[in-house]
Write a structure and sequence with these properties.
The protein is an alpha+beta fold. The chain is built from six helices and ten strands, in the order H-H-H-H-E-E-E-H-E-E-E-E-E-E-E-H. Helices cover 46% and strands 20% of the residues. The structure holds copper (II) ion (CU). Copper (II) ion is lined by residues 126, 195, 230, 232, 234, 238, 241.
């Protein structure tokens, strides 16, 4: 009996993830750092416990019935074939439970789809095998690819051991940067095949489909680095196009955005000058031709 009790306690600890080892395994859904992710986690736990209660009740009655009314104890089977009262009860109770679960779930779903009042819009485009981020109102865009050391570590005989690389395969060269506490609307599409943009800590995942724009939103409450992955099998290097989002304070974000704009301007200045020179040369040549005629 003692052993059964001990096994039960161990089982419950396992289920609830209370032991440090289990907690480190990150078995449960993450609470995350956004209002939506917390709501989704709350729903997940609520439905889990509803399911646990239903399972306990159903299996309890079943095990009790099997044990108590067994043939060896002299149980005699009932002879009735139909019972309207029982049919009504076992139809109405599940309907009530389903409706009770659907109400909070529908509320959260509506909230997830409500992208109104966003303060920053970022367009995300999936490519085989990288992401492009465009800050549509600021003229800033860049590609985000797997960090070089991680790319080397994944190759055989590269001399870089995967265990030596922190956040293996979850690091990029240019992360998406967003401000803390602001509603960020993300427009998601793809340029070749279907990908999916997923950041567990934001509780958000949406398919990136060529020729189609999906959207999601998040408002990160805490600064930090949040990591995710492409969540749609998209080809050979599907496992090598991580998502990294850096949440900075508004001031840090503004400074970062200004630096990006300045870098873009500096990069495009020689090209713009060259284009202007080319246009002038063409115009002069055209005038010469006209004069000669
Ligand atoms: Cu992908």
């Amino acid at each position: 009996m003692k052993m059964v009790k001990r096994a039960f306690v161990a089982g419950m600890a396992l289920l609830l993830g209370t032991s440090p080892a289990m907690a480190a395994w990150d078995l449960n859904l993450r609470v995350g750092v956004t209002e939506l992710s917390r709501e989704i986690y709350g729903l997940h736990m609520l439905i889990l416990w509803v399911c646990v209660a239903i399972a306990a009740a159903v299996f309890g009655v079943m095990i009790y019935s099997i044990a108590t009314f067994r043939k060896s104890k002299g149980a005699v089977p009932a002879t009735f074939e139909h019972n309207t009262k029982a049919e009504i009860i076992w139809t109405v109770i599940p309907v009530i439970i389903l409706v009770a679960m659907a109400v909070p779930a529908a509320k959260t779903l509506v909230k997830i789809d409500d992208t109104r009042g966003s303060e920053l819009t970022v367009k995300v485009t999936g490519y085989q095998w990288k992401w492009q981020y465009e800050y549509v109102d600021h003229g800033v865009s860049f590609f985000s690819t797997l960090a070089r050391t991680h790319d080397e570590a994944r190759q055989l005989d590269s001399g870089v051991a995967p265990e030596s690389v922190e956040n293996y395969l979850l690091e990029v060269d240019h992360p998406l940067v967003v401000p803390q506490g602001k509603k960020v609307r993300v427009l998601i599409t793809a340029n070749d095949v279907i990908h999916a943009w997923w950041v567990p800590d934001f509780g958000m995942k949406k398919d990136a489909i060529p020729g189609y724009i999906n959207e999601l939103w998040f408002r990160a409450d805490e600064t930090g680095t949040y990591r995710g992955q492409c969540a749609e099998l998209c080809g050979r290097d599907h496992g090598f196009m991580p998502v990294v989002v850096e949440v900075k304070t508004q001031a840090e974000f503004d400074a970062w955005l200004e630096a990006q704009k300045a870098a873009r301007q500096a990069a495009s200045a020689p090209a713009a000058r060259a284009a202007a020179v080319a246009t002038t040369v063409e115009t002069v040549a055209a005038l010469r031709v006209a004069n000669a005629e």
